[in-house]
Structure prediction request, 65 residues.
Amino acid sequence: MKKIEIRPIGTVRADDSAGRYALEIEREHRDGLAGLGEFGRVNVLWWAHCVDDPKMRGTLVRDLP
Prediction:
């Protein structure tokens, strides 16, 4: 089986009290997002590293906020 490696290209910043969320993309990856504004939506894959434990890894799908 081929190994899949995941590397972060940025950070998700959340202000739950204000209902605001932002993606901070690292400078070296920003050129790859050219033309993204032409799309109606984007799927963001993220890893909740602060709750990374074997029990939580069993949860593969969650409802959208």
